[in-house]
Every structure is written in C-alpha cells, then in structure tokens.
Design goal:
The structure is a homotetramer of 353-residue chains. In chain A, the strands form three sheets. In chain A, strands 3, 4, 5, 6, 7, 15 and 16 form a seven-stranded mixed sheet that branches. In chain A, helix 5 packs across helix 6 and helix 8 packs parallel to helix 9. Chain A has eleven helices and 16 strands. Chain A has two domains: 205 residues, Quinone Oxidoreductase, Chain A, domain 1 (Alpha-Beta Complex), CATH 3.90.180.10; 137 residues, Rossmann fold (3-Layer(aba) Sandwich). Chain A is α/β, with parallel strands linked by helices. Chain A starts with a strand and ends with a strand. At the B-C interface, helix 10 of B face helix 10 of C. Strand 13 of chain A pairs antiparallel with strand 13 of chain B, so a sheet runs across the interface. Chains A, B, C, D: It comes from Crossiella cryophila. Chains A, B, C, D: Its cofactor is Zn(2+).
Amino acid sequence: MTDRMRGLALLGQGEVGLVERDIPAAGPGEAVVRTTASLICTSDVHAVRGAVPIPDGRLLGHESVGVVHAIGEGVSSVAVGERVAVNAITPDGTCDYCQRGFTSQCGGPLGAYRYTARKDGNLAEYFHVNDADYNLAPIPDGLADEVAVYACDMLSTGLVGAENADIPIGGTVAVFAQGAVGLSATLGARLLGAGLIIAVEGIPERAALAKRFGADLVLDPAATDPAAEIRALTGGGVDSAIEALGAQATWEGCIRATRAGGTISNIGYHGADGPTLSIPLDAFGLGMAGKKITTDLCPGGRERMTRLMRLLANGRVDPTPMTTHRFPLAEAETAFDIMANKKDNIIKPLITY
Amino acid sequence: MTDRMRGLALLGQGEVGLVERDIPAAGPGEAVVRTTASLICTSDVHAVRGAVPIPDGRLLGHESVGVVHAIGEGVSSVAVGERVAVNAITPDGTCDYCQRGFTSQCGGPLGAYRYTARKDGNLAEYFHVNDADYNLAPIPDGLADEVAVYACDMLSTGLVGAENADIPIGGTVAVFAQGAVGLSATLGARLLGAGLIIAVEGIPERAALAKRFGADLVLDPAATDPAAEIRALTGGGVDSAIEALGAQATWEGCIRATRAGGTISNIGYHGADGPTLSIPLDAFGLGMAGKKITTDLCPGGRERMTRLMRLLANGRVDPTPMTTHRFPLAEAETAFDIMANKKDNIIKPLITY
Amino acid sequence: MTDRMRGLALLGQGEVGLVERDIPAAGPGEAVVRTTASLICTSDVHAVRGAVPIPDGRLLGHESVGVVHAIGEGVSSVAVGERVAVNAITPDGTCDYCQRGFTSQCGGPLGAYRYTARKDGNLAEYFHVNDADYNLAPIPDGLADEVAVYACDMLSTGLVGAENADIPIGGTVAVFAQGAVGLSATLGARLLGAGLIIAVEGIPERAALAKRFGADLVLDPAATDPAAEIRALTGGGVDSAIEALGAQATWEGCIRATRAGGTISNIGYHGADGPTLSIPLDAFGLGMAGKKITTDLCPGGRERMTRLMRLLANGRVDPTPMTTHRFPLAEAETAFDIMANKKDNIIKPLITY
Amino acid sequence: MTDRMRGLALLGQGEVGLVERDIPAAGPGEAVVRTTASLICTSDVHAVRGAVPIPDGRLLGHESVGVVHAIGEGVSSVAVGERVAVNAITPDGTCDYCQRGFTSQCGGPLGAYRYTARKDGNLAEYFHVNDADYNLAPIPDGLADEVAVYACDMLSTGLVGAENADIPIGGTVAVFAQGAVGLSATLGARLLGAGLIIAVEGIPERAALAKRFGADLVLDPAATDPAAEIRALTGGGVDSAIEALGAQATWEGCIRATRAGGTISNIGYHGADGPTLSIPLDAFGLGMAGKKITTDLCPGGRERMTRLMRLLANGRVDPTPMTTHRFPLAEAETAFDIMANKKDNIIKPLITY
C-alpha cells in the first residue's frame, strides 16, 4: 500500500528502530511533506534517553526537508510538489507568545517544539506540518536538499546564538564547545562581524573544523583553563560568549570569559545538568557587572527559513563539512547508534530517502 | 581651621564613627563639593560588614549633593558656588568600558564605584569628585537638595532596573522586595508604562509605600509562594521581573515568576549569597525558554543625572516618602545604627549639614 | 429580518449616509461582531474625501468594539457572546511582513488596513473580523465598551508614536499637534517616562486637554516659531519629536525641534501633502546629524490590544475626555458632518448602538 | 628648523597647495602625532569647494595615522613613539551628546568633526589630537599603517552605514553608489550577515570592486531604474538600503527600493543637494509604511578604532584594493587634483611621508 511509510521510532528507553505506519493526513491549514533528506540531532539522542517524556512508538527527528505531498484546506502559500524546508520548531504565529515575537515559546515554554516532543517526528518518509502557511519555506532552485536541511535546526540555532550575543562589529567572541551547534555558532559569529573568535574544544577534528568555519584560535579545555586564557588574550574578557553545549562547566566558562558589560548567549540544552545551573558570583560582579544572559530555542517560521536558505544559496556559509556520515533510511538505526555513542568522529549523519 | 572637616568613617569591622580630616583638594579635572544633604545606603552597611575590602578610617557614603567648593584646572562645566548632584558611580567617560557605554564598569568590573570602595565616601562635609565635567550635574532651581539627593543612587538604580527589564507598554511586571531600591524600581516600572505591577514584600509599611508608588498589588512572601501566585494571576508569568534585594530566594522567585521570553532584571547586590547564585532549570526551560537576565550597577554621569532630576523637578516621581528619618551629621552614628539594624521601620535616613 | 443591518457608507465623493445590508458571515478562521460602541476617525473623513480609492457603498469606520455574534470554523480563542475589541488594523500574523514583526504592513505596504480600505468598515451594527484568533481581544470585566474602544486606534497609534520615539527616561519630547492622535501621543510620552513634554497646538480646548493629559507646556504655532522656541527651551532641541498631524509644517517642525542624535517619530497621515515631503537639510545636518525618522501605522493584534486595555482597566491612562460628543447610530450622519467640518470643538464622537 | 612642517592647505576657494607652518603643541590631555600615512577624502574636495566655511590657510585632511610625537599633561593611554590611528571624528567623550552615545555630535550637530572644519586637518607631517586618551588607538603589530588608515573614516563610515541598517541575518540590502564610502558599506553589509547585496553603480571599475567586496549583483543606474529593479528582484523591496553618495536621486532610490518596514541608512553627505531633501510619499506609504531612516557621521573614539583595526588585522576585510593611487606628500597637490576631478578612475589616493 502506498499510504504506509517507514520511520525511526523510540521503541522503549534507549531503544530505537524502524517502524511502519500510516502516512499522516493534512487537516485544515496543515500539510504533509514527503521527506528527501534528514539530519539526526543530538536532541534525538537526548529524547531517547528520557530527557523529554515521550511515549514508546513516537517517531524521532526534527531536521527534514522534502516535497509537499498534500495540503489541507486553506493552505495557500505552497502547492503540492514544491520542495520545502520546515524548521524543527513550528509556531502557530497566533498565540500571545508568537504575537510578542517569542515564537519558539508558542503557547508556553518550548511550546513550538512539537516534533517528537508532542507528535511524531520527521525521521520518516513523510511528515506532518502544522500551520503550513506559517512554516513551509520553499527551497530555492539550485540549493540541494542535503544543504537546505541545515537550516532546519543547526543554522537556526547556531546563528541565533550569535544574533543574541550582542556582538559589536569587530568585537571578541568565545564559543564554548564545537559540536554541530557550536560549529554553527562559530559560523554565525563570523557571519555577524566578530573581529576575534576563540573556540573552546578538545576534539582535534572539531577544532580543525572550527578553524575552517572561522575561529581564529581554538583552546583545548583539557590543556588550559579556557576562561582564564580568554581573559588574558583579550585584556579582561570577550564581548560575547556563546554556550553551545549545555553543561555547568561551559556555562560557567562563558560567565568567567566575558568582560564586564558582556553578553552570554546560551543555546545549549541543559537537560543533563541536574535541577540547577550555577552562576559564579565573583565573575558575575555580585550581580552588578553589567553582564547579560540570553537564552533561546531554534527560531522557526517560513520567513526566517527563507533568510537562512538565502545564506546557503548565496554561498555565505557552508555547513556541509559537518556532514561526516550518510545513510539511507534503511540504515537509520546504525546512524543513530553512531550518533548516540559519538563513534567515528561523527558530527552530523545525513539520512537519505 | 576651616580646612578640616568631619565625616562618618569605618573604624574597624562593624564599627563606625565621626572623624575629622582635611578637606580634599581638587586636582586637574577634579572638583570638591561642600555637602548639603546625604542619604545613608544599605551598601554602606554592607561595606562596614566587610562586603567590600576597605581600610579602617575610610569615609562612608555615596549619596550626597552640595555646592561646588573648588574646581581643578580644566574643569569648565560648572563654577564654584553652583548646586550640584553627583551620582554614586563616577565614570571617567574615557576608558574602553565607558566608550562602549558600560560606564559603571569604568576600567573593569564595578570600576566606577569609587566612593568608599576606592577612596573616601561622601557622608562628610566635603567630598572629592573625579572627572568633574563628566560627573557634576547642576541641580535645577526649585529642586530641593533633599529631593535631588535621591538621583544619586536610589532613582538611578531603581529606574535602571525598570529600564533594563524590557517592559512592553502595558506589560506585567513583578518587583521582588520593596526596600528603597525595590520601591524605586516600582516607581520606575510605573514610569515606564507597565500595565500591572505586582510587588513582593512582607513588611506592611513597605507594602503600603509600594502601593503608593504604583504597585497594583503586593504579595507577602510569608503568606504565599509569590512566583506561583504571580504565574496564576498573569496566566503564565510576568513579562518582566526585577530583583531588588540580592538573595537567592528573590532571584529564584524572579526566574520562576517570569513567562517564557520574559526578562529578569537584577539590581540586587548578591554579596551575601555565598559563592554562587542558582538558576532553577525547570523554570529556565533547560536554557531554552527565551528568558533573559540583565544586571546593572547604578548608572552615573551628568547627562543621566540631569534627566533624573528633571523627573523630580517636573513632578514625575516623588521618592521623598522614603525619607523616614532625618539627622544632622553630628548624629550620623545613630542614623547608621538604625539603618544597620533596620529599626523603627526605617527606609532612608537623610543627613543634613 | 434579523439578518439585515445598518451602517454608515460612502455614497459618493464627499457624501455619506446610513444604508442597510446583510449581516456578514464568518468563514473559516473568521468572526462577526455585533457592535456596541464606535468612534469616528479623521481617517474616515479622509476616506470620504478620496484619500483612499474606495467604491461607493463601502461602509466606513474602523474603531469599534462589541460582542461576538458568530465564529467560523477553527476559531478557538473566543466564544459567541464574549465582549471583544478589534484593532483598526487586522494582520493575518502569517505573511512574511507579519513574521518579521511588521504586522501593520501585512502582505505589503499598509496591508493590514482592511476596514473601509479593502472591505466594509465597522461603523455598522455588525462587522466582520479576519483571522479572528489573531485579532479578537476580550474586553476585561469592568472596562466599559466606550472606554475600550479607544484601544482600537487612538491609543495604539498615539502610544506607538511614543514607543518609536526612543525617549530616554526623563528625556524631552515635543508632540506636534494635539488632535486625537496627538493627545494620545502625549498620553504615551507621559506613560513612557518623558521628563518634559512640550505640545504644539493652537486651539485652546485642545491645548487645555494636552495639559490635562501630561504636557508640561503647550506652544501656539500662531504665536511663536515652535521649533525655535523648543530649541531655546531645551538647550538645543528635544530628544524626541512626534509628528501627529501629517503636514509639511509639523513634519519640518519635528526635524527642526530635535537635537542632533534625536528621533522623529511620525504617526501623521501625509495624504494631503502632495507627492513629496521635504526635509530641511540644515536641521538634518546634511544627513549626518544622527537624526532618525521612524514611521508607523496603528499596530494591531490581540496581544497588543490586551496590553492597551490593561492600561485602561488599571487606570494608567484615561482618554475619555476626548469623547466630546455622543450619538446613536441613527444620527451618525450628523456626527460625521460635525467631525468632517471640525465643528463645535469636536475631538472624538462616540457612536452608540 | 625641526619644528616646522609641511601640509596641504586651502589657499582660497578651489585652490590648494603645500604650506609650511609650526608643528602643533600638545596641551593638557592632548597629543601630537607624526604622520606616516594619509588618505585624501572626497570631503576634502567638498571643503575646498566651500561646503564647509573654512578660512584660507586651513590645512586639509582627516584620514591619517602615525607615531606619537608628543603628549600633553595627563595623557596616560599611550607613550611617545607608539604607532597610533586617530579617527576623522574626535569626540571629547564628556559632553551631553557624548554621554548619550552620540559622540559624533560632540557639543552639537557634527561637533566632533574638527579636522579642517574647526582646526587644521591632518594632511600634514604632524597633527594635533584633542582628548588624546579618548581618541588615540594603538595600531596592532603587524598591521601596516597604509592599511590601518582605512579605519579613520572609510571603514568607520561604511560600516556604520551597515550597522545602522537593521540588516536581519540573511536579509537583503541595497547599497546606492560605490565610491569609497559605498564600497566600504558593501564590505559592511557583507560583514554583518546580509544574504543578498545589490549595489548600484555605473562606473565599471567600481562595479567590479563592488563584486569583489561582496555585492551579489550590481545595477547600472544608467541602464535601469534601480529601485524598480530591486523591488522586482526581491519581491517588494530590500530589508535595508544604504545611501552612500549624498544626492536626491540615490536618497529617493533608497526609499523606493526598500520594502514596508525596511530601513534606509544614510551615510551620504547631502551638502550639494540644495536646501531640502525630498521624500516620495507614495513609496513612504504616506508616512505609515513602517520605513525608518537613520543618519550618521563616521563614529570615532579609541574603542571603535580598536575594533575596526582588529577586523583589518585578522583579515575580515581588506579595503586596500581601493588604494588606486600613491603619492608622497610633495605631490599632494597632484593627488588632490586627480581626486577632485575624479581622473584616472581614482578611488582613494594614499599619501606617504
């Protein structure tokens, strides 16, 4: 039957596997997309490990692009057959949070994080899109699906880390951790005019990629105290620090590495940090050093996706060196295992259909 | 001799007393002011208790106004004999921090906090002013010294708490604690267009003053969980919360009381909080709820002082109900004791000369 | 028949009259409101005089509140029978302009200005609401309809004039013209912490109302050169000037009255100014004096309406002194004539149903 | 005598020539710099043609770097012998305008524009620096003087044109005119994350340089209506337009090329435009299309110079392809003539010492 599809699902705590189910339907204002390319995210690994309470059988994934398969009543911005990208975060554009501009917090904290968290994810042959006119972004001609898919999460998250960091033109920036999110933040800091970018990363392959993506130097946290080193190198601290891991050590490093009046921009997911995150009061000037902390979750929506894909199409950034591995959907379990266990220097595995 | 003066000094840990010493001199670019009115600050109490490492004999005080007594070479903005106010924080306007706009962090963290912390304070008959052209602000005719003196710290601190809080017009604001700083923040939230102001305070006299200053309601933290109550009253949390005490409980209350995408504006001094300040990760959305934290230290400088005094002169705010006590300088020790021990429902003691 | 209604329509260039027609229907995502209170706007007068190309028979009006009469499929935020306010400007929340935050420009320039301009207005017993979940704002209990109706345009427009003006706390503001929009801007400047508000207005009744609404002084443009007087009073010009009329003279006055680095916030409708608006280059520093010009059109949407009504409900502003006249709908032609010809010192006529 | 020097002076309307005079002295807080590299600016040409009222004999020039020759009393940030750059604009950092952050407007409109306009310029073997601690910026080791000199005006002006343009990440930008300022603005738009840059320029050599500096395409205003073409290419207009010439046609082009809600950033000098600048009201949405206009004058100060030179030192931008010509000071008259008459496709002539 053509109306069945396969996808990668949570089978039970820590277990994943391909399952078969019905292709979703498009209700009013909704769409269904036939997937052409996906990336697996560390957040999928977190989900499988129990970070987000999801039922067994829930499909994983939130970084996918494809072709419009069906549209529901009232959808007017795209037609069946168009190539489209959909952000991991899918706001409705209407709730009070969205009207205030906090679209990732649609309806409440983290509310626009729907794939996997609230409904089936899109590591599957087809996926459902709520509020399609708000969320479906046509992929420009000439931009390959496997490039466009970076706009769904990595670029949106990494770049917003830089956008929120109040980087003065020519200013100094530290990016703590150079996984896929941190590497994307490095791309973002470079894209937004930072004059000096110091990355913090211990894995040599990632450090090399950080330099390729625009870092001026990379500090190994195993070999030095990065915050102290950064303060020494910059005469007091960077203008902006980006937390791209989600750990007490990198968070604290950001606060310590930033000068008075500087900004700490958090895009790390602190689900593994226990109930609290700790601020060192000496480095925080006892609450009076003028430091600012911002936090965000991958902003979505068609308009932003259009701008992110323009950056890709016009050669402003090239995140594809992060695609270290490729697998067809049939091998998604293997891909997930390599990702979950950080084998083989993996950064991002691309799933093809 | 006319070139001796009296002032209130730290005599040793926890001890204060009036001392006599030479009237300071005005070097190039500097000025000396003959004091006419001062307010004692809780920060003076903190200093005496050892929060800031200062030598015995150091004069206390940083909230004073007066008349220009002497100006050094090159000072051009005021003349001897003019009534002037000087902010508690006295930037040089020239260092990199100042050029970036972080004037309170002049030369480094908290660097423009000079009175008491780096030189004699101004709870004294005369006081010294660095970078006089940057810092001396003429007091408008018709504005009494004992009103203008509120611009030196309370208004500047309280109002910046509100200015940094990103209050949308008609938005909702919580102000945690209603001491002099919190009451000033309540004035500020009202002044900047908040549509609903919820104060948190347990002392009845302060709660009453909070309402007089513009709070729509006041929650007693002994009788309720303020953050939970605020979330219930606002359908998810306030747009902005102001931390005006400097304690883990109020800090955490601010984070819990704020909705996703909201701003926590810290103006509390967290010197008594131990080495760290703790963020509850559930209320922080694991670092992804779009919450922002800002911190600041009483912004100074003539231009700001001019605006603050305009607010006073034109009847926009009246902080004088906070002046619960008055003493001549000769009784400053008594005033300090009452302030230090929070006797007699004191809020601010005015010292006259 | 109960499904017919009356409303005030354009009958031909310069002519208006009550007409009867079908009550509109609510399609998917739409609503119909039974009107309880309306205000007539000078923009209605402009429309009748041909400023906006509209067909004969088009209903006028865009400032109305009422009770939900019907909701279309998919509308979930309100129920039939609820009291609601709808802004004059009704964005869809979904187009690229809306996603970027320029909701008044929905789909293109001035695109969310639909009533009268693109469909029937709401000076009628019933009116249609597009994108109802985005635009319908419940009126708080205790807030009268005839007060809430000020949120539909006057407050939203006047306040955004102040919001866009970059008023520093305690700063100086000039508001050029004190018709209903200018008076609302004066309310806004006061609400947002201006330390000195100078209104420019020649009609004594409006000047008096300007003072009541918060202006510190009012200059008569027939008796003085307001810009020169403002520069003299402020030592070089105001921080912010608000253009609330839409005329070359007030526009130029704003540019001349503003100091270097200041902001000119335009909320005037310049439809009668001919094809161009002229900037005096001397006052503009030949394009290098750091002056900024902002323009806006009455921001709409439920979330903003909720904040504006909170200001009304909590006593922050009281625009009702602007309601100089009241008429039942049956006398709407008379009301319109008085408004069109500025008879009897009219400011805003309220229409009741 | 060693205390005499040569420099290029205005000799009378339209006439320039090398003159000899005393090396300036450094008063308190001041410095004197021995020049090592200068660039001639179109503003020098304007000055000679009478745009700024200056006396005969006044030295020209405001783009120079060199070595500290003498420092006055109280100067502490640099020592004699250090290589330094000084911005064309030299604020005092202390006046009300500076304290508010409008440092180019020091003391009043365009007030920090001192070289040539208010005192001798620095197309001379030595030059004077007011407020030396505020304005002297050490040149990093490894950065050549002839590169650093671009920070004095071209980069600061061009980049602020982009900084003020509110470019959303990946957004669309038009830069009208590709002289040295416009080319620098193109560098700035690229540096700040624009996703599409459309330059407008008719001279082939400049168009080629625009592409080299980051423009995606260049429109020839002689061959097309650039604003109409830009609107067509972008589906309604760019997010941001930069006016880099100072002419009614380019100004109007910016307003017409920008979409509703967009920003026009003016860095052109409109001294030749007659008494007024004209805004087309249709493209301005009758004052309601949400368009914003910003204006600025080359921001100065050590801190900004440090960031600009960091961009140069770390290879973020390379403006040196604009150095089309080189002359020793002895040939400055020839250099000026070529610049004034735009001969030989000149963009920037470098003067060496």
